[in-house]
Design brief:
Order of helices and strands: HHHHHHHH
Largest sheet: none
Low-confidence stretches: none
Helix content: 55-70%
Shape: globular
Strand content: under 5%
Mean pLDDT: 91
Number of strands: 0
Number of helices: 8
Distance between the termini: 43 Å
Length: 203
């Protein structure tokens, strides 16, 4: 809870900086200029909350509790790295003017009101979804249908971040790279330790 609340404090901090003249960067690829706003993309965007909650509960009650703690440590590490980037390199995604009274528009406006249009790189939406995807894939090994559903859900959530104009494609790519490094860090560390001169001498 303390780590999660850090996001809102950084939002307030960056809001103060913006009001005092700080101009955030706009990190964008050319392809982003052609990606339209799609109002119903808010549904997969919101499904992220259920995806994360399901993963936490599923791992918590799974046989190997180590996966649950690794998942939680990964999320904490990802959040802390993201917070540092948010402070050192604040980015901004301009939002479209949207009008209407349908459920999709109202949900999108509710998200816009709750979440400031900066602190965009990396996307914590994508970063946490990546951890869910990787840890669930490990649990679903050999279960083709579940692996397919998990993959589709991850891809759709990633796409929803750009179709709702919450993020640009560099935010997605940056999040996946950070998530990949955090997820595989224990394996890399073990491999390095195994081949280090100190470990070899002990053997």
């Amino acid at each position: 809870i303390a780590v999660t609340s850090g996001y809102f404090f950084i939002n307030l901090f960056n809001d103060y900086r913006m009001s005092n003249g700080l101009m955030p960067s706009i990190l964008i690829f050319e392809i982003d200029r052609y990606i339209p706003f799609i109002e119903f993309a808010v549904l997969p965007y919101i499904s992220w909350y259920f995806y994360v909650a399901f993963t936490i509960i599923y791992l918590l009650f799974s046989k190997n509790s180590k996966d649950y703690f690794r998942f939680m440590y990964s999320m904490i590490a990802g959040a802390l790295i993201s917070y540092v980037i948010f402070v050192l390199y604040p980015t901004h995604v301009p939002r479209p003017d949207i009008y209407g009274n349908d459920i999709f528009t109202r949900l999108t406006l509710a998200i816009y009101n709750a979440d400031a249009p900066y602190n965009c790189f990396p996307s914590m939406h994508v970063l946490y979804a990546f951890f869910c995807f990787m840890f669930l894939n490990k649990k679903f090994a050999g279960k083709v249908f579940l692996l397919f559903i998990n993959s589709v859900l991850f891809v759709v959530i990633c796409l929803s971040t750009v179709f709702t104009k919450q993020h640009y494609t560099p935010d997605i790519l940056g999040s996946i790279i950070i998530g990949f490094l955090i997820y595989y860090f224990p394996y890399i560390a073990r491999r390095v330790r195994r081949h280090s001169p100190v470990t070899s001498r002990r053997k």
